């Protein structure tokens, strides 16, 4: 599931607060050295990396199935190592047996921890920068950059691309104004976030076009998903200051085959969508690899020219 900007901002705030707490932990180490007190659980305890504030925050987020797990597991390993070397250095100083290599080891562990945290921050900020400012959905750049990997990760399921285009959106802008047009785009994006399921990811691709990547076993399941979303959009009224608007979309759906580029799959979906526009709008059209187009939920088939 793709994240909203508010969720990313919340993670970054929590991360920064936890890092600030770790600076306080370093100062606390100096106090322990001066007082020769080595009894603090977050300094010299057997599981000191779990007792400190950063460790507590990290343990709450360290879930194997989470999309951030690879970054967080690296931070966790670096954090644990930093605590271990810090504890060894503290005990050596208090016991008047410290050596220069122990300071070096602690310094290296600190730098490794900082590097792992920075990698995670860059990852989060990169996601945030690729989110469309108007709708809050991931944008075209994120889709472009992640598409090949998503195609590989889809197996053993199949990946499908569903292109949605709002019908007569120019009429909405010309009749109600661009501010209402923006309300329509934001509302549709918000609804898509609510309506898409675990194996469905929504993007704003540009203008009034949205893309959903679907992972299902069969063409039939993908078609049902596309039809479900089209029907939900048709049934949902969008409030604006002077009343409510109803919109429909025309959708083009196609299966993405291994080794295909985004442009190839998008081209088929676009041609399927165009066939839907030409034959009445407010419908979902499926195109197979042979360029055969079928209206989902109907029996009519249209042969398109490449």
Briefly characterize the structure:
With 306 residues, the protein is an alpha+beta fold.
Mean pLDDT: 91
Count of individual beta strands: 9
Query: Can you summarize the main beta sheet?
Result: 7 strands, mixed
Tell me the overall shape: elongated
Order of helices and strands: HHHHHHHEHHEEHEEEHEEE
| DSSP helix fraction | 55-70%
Strand content: 15-25%
Rg on CA atoms, Å: 26 Å
N-to-C span = 34 Å
| Order of neighbouring strands in the sheet with most strands | 2-3-1-6-7-8-9
Uncertain runs are 302-306
- What is the structural class? alpha+beta
Identify the notable features of this structure and list them briefly.
306 residues, alpha+beta, seven-stranded mixed beta sheet, two-stranded antiparallel ribbon, 11 helices, 9 strands, disordered C terminus
Question: Please, could you describe this protein's structure?
Answer:
With 306 residues, the protein is α+β, with helices and mostly antiparallel strands. The protein is built from 11 helices and 9 strands. The protein has helices at residues 5-35, 41-44, 48-51, 53-61, 69-94, 100-129, 140-154, 169-176, 178-195, 219-235, 262-278; strands spanning 158-166, 200-206, 209-216, 237-240, 243-246, 249-256, 284-287, 292-295, 301-303. Strands 2-3-1-6-7-8-9 form a 7-stranded mixed β-sheet, with helices on both faces. A two-stranded antiparallel sheet has the order 4-5. The radius of gyration is 26 Å and the shape is elongated. It starts with a helix and ends with a strand.
């Amino acid at each position: 599931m793709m994240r909203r900007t508010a969720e990313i901002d919340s993670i970054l705030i929590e991360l920064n607060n936890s890092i600030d707490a770790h600076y306080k932990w370093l100062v606390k180490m100096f106090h322990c050295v001066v007082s020769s007190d080595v009894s603090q659980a977050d300094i010299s305890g057997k599981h000191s990396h779990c007792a400190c504030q950063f460790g507590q925050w990290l343990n709450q987020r360290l879930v194997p199935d989470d999309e951030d797990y690879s970054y967080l597991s690296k931070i966790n390993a670096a954090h644990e190592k930093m605590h271990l070397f810090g504890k060894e250095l503290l005990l050596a100083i208090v016991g008047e047996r410290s050596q220069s290599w122990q300071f070096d080891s602690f310094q290296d562990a600190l730098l490794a921890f900082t590097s792992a945290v920075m990698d995670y921050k860059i990852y989060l900020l990169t996601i945030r920068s690729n989110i469309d400012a108007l709708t809050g959905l991931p944008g075209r750049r994120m889709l472009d950059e992640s598409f090949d990997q998503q195609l590989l990760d889809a197996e053993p399921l199949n990946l499908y691309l569903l292109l949605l285009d709002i019908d007569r959106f120019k009429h909405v802008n010309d009749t109600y104004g661009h501010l209402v047009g923006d309300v329509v785009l934001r509302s549709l994006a918000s609804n898509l976030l609510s309506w898409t399921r675990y194996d469905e990811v929504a993007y704003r691709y540009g203008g009034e076009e949205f893309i959903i990547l679907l992972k299902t076993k069969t063409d039939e399941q993908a078609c049902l998903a596309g039809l479900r979303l089209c029907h939900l959009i048709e049934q949902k009224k969008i409030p604006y200051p002077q009343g409510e608007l109803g919109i429909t979309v025309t959708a083009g759906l196609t299966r993405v085959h291994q080794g295909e580029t985004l442009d190839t799959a998008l081209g088929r979906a676009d041609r399927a969508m165009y066939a839907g526009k030409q034959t009445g709008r407010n419908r979902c059209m499926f195109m197979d690899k042979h360029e055969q187009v079928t209206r989902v939920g109907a029996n009519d088939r249209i042969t398109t020219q490449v």
